[in-house]
Each structure stands twice: as structure tokens, then as C-alpha cells.
Write a structure and sequence with these properties.
heterodimer, A: mainly beta, seven-stranded mixed β-sheet, about 5% helix, globular, B: mainly beta, six-stranded mixed β-sheet, four-stranded antiparallel β-sheet, 12 strands, about 55% strand
Chain lengths: ~120, ~110
């Protein structure tokens, strides 16, 4: 059973460019989450998918951010017109859609994509 | 509102010492879940333990143990006989049924010196 994978692991871009990150959840996990983590802070929730449906979005997710999960498997997070304030670690997590409530609430995280906007 | 507070920013111990990481949470929900995650220098958050709001029984799992007290809204985590490999940032987290998201504390950085 492989864990959550994220690509790329690192991304350096210039301000104003668009970037896209990919997340592959644990197979058979139908819940998928995106978080952002800045230095010295805990992860902050961005958005949540159950299968292909995006059920919740944080106010942190400005209109420059868009996330998709077209077939209910992998997900992409795109940032348009990047700004220096977007520099952070972007974490993806997944959790099972079955089992006990505890099982469903337990999220397993990928290694993250570290973004640096110059 | 949901909130998780980890008052300890950094803790430094010598190998083989026991160390307790504090966590205080706020929630109005009656059904919720508490977690501890470890983030080593590699960056990946690793799930360690969880507890639901209806189960205040404290447990031990290997070198890890936890103390959940609803009366004080605390969920403290103890590492017994710490090792250098335990050096990492530890996050306490709270989620609630149907909330879809998990709220994390700011983390406690643990240094274990040989």
C-alpha cells in the first residue's frame, strides 16, 4: 500500500507565473485535502474533495487558486499569477471514505510541494 | 470556533529523558477527534495517535502515551525514553464530524540531544 505522493517536490517560479501541483492519494481513499504550511506554522486547510466533488473551500483559497479532482483519483492544485506571499509548502492528504468515523477522519499526508516565488 | 493551542514552541531534552508535549483545544462540538502528527526534517507529516471525544481512556503505545482530559480540554502527548530520531516538530490537531477539515496547532519543535 503506497502512501500519498505529490509532484513536484520543489518548485521555483517567478512572480506572475502559473504553477500546478499534483497529488495522488492512497488508493481507495475517496477523501482528499489540500493544506498550505508556512514556516513555523501548522498546516492551514485550503480545500476538500469527496470523490470528484469539491465540498469545501477555505477563504484562504483566493480566486487565483483552483483545485480539481476530475475522476475522483488524483488532484491538481493550480496557482495563477503567483505572488511572493504564495511561497509555502503545499500539502495533500487523503482519508478513507469507509470504516469507523475515526478511520474516516484520520488523514494521511504526502511529502508536500515546496513552492518558492521569486 | 475551533482552535488548537500548543504553548510550547521548543523543547530540548537529553536522550532517554521523558518529554510531554502540551495541547489545549477549543470546540463547541460534542463529537470531535484529536490527533498528534510528527513532522521530521524531511517535511512529511506522519500520523501518530488519535482519540475521539467519547473516549477519555488514556493509552500507551510503545514509547508513546497520551492524556486526554475533556474537563480541561487538553490532549497531552508523552514520549518515554526519548531518542535522537524523535527530533521533529509535533503537531496537535482537531477535527469534527462533518467538518471536512482539520485544525492544527502551531507545533512544538522537539530537540533530543545525544
Amino acid at each position: 500500500d503506497t502512501g500519498v505522493s505529490q509532484n513536484p517536490r520543489h518548485k521555483i517560479t517567478k512572480r506572475g507565473q502559473n504553477v500546478t501541483f499534483r497529488c495522488d492519494p492512497i488508493s481507495e481513499h475517496n477523501r482528499l485535502y489540500w493544506y498550505r504550511q508556512t514556516l513555523g506554522q501548522g498546516p492551514e486547510f485550503l480545500t476538500y474533495f469527496q470523490n470528484e466533488a469539491q465540498l469545501e473551500k477555505s477563504r484562504l483559497l483566493s480566486d487565483r487558486f483552483s483545485a480539481e479532482r476530475p475522476k475522483g483519483s488524483f488532484s491538481t492544485l493550480e496557482i495563477q499569477r503567483t505572488e511572493q506571499g504564495d511561497s509555502a509548502m503545499y500539502l495533500c492528504a487523503s482519508s478513507p471514505g469507509s470504516g469507523t468515523s475515526e478511520d474516516q477522519e484520520t488523514q494521511y499526508f504526502g511529502p508536500g510541494t515546496r513552492l518558492l516565488v521569486l | 470556533a475551533q482552535k488548537v493551542t500548543q504553548a510550547q514552541t521548543e523543547i530540548s531534552v537529553v536522550e532517554k529523558e521523558d518529554v510531554t508535549l502540551d495541547c489545549v483545544y477549543e470546540t463547541r462540538d460534542t463529537t470531535y477527534y484529536l490527533f498528534w502528527y510528527k513532522q521530521p526534517p524531511s517535511g512529511e507529516l506522519v500520523f501518530l495517535i488519535r482519540r475521539n471525544s467519547f473516549d477519555e481512556q488514556n493509552e500507551i503505545s510503545g514509547r508513546y502515551s497520551w492524556n486526554f482530559q475533556k474537563s480541561t480540554s487538553s490532549f497531552n502527548f508523552t514520549i518515554t525514553a526519548s531518542q535522537v530520531v524523535d527530533s521533529a516538530v509535533y503537531f496537535c490537531a482537531l477535527s469534527y464530524t462533518g467538518g471536512f477539515k482539520t485544525i492544527f496547532g502551531a507545533g512544538t519543535r522537539l530537540f533530543v540531544k545525544a
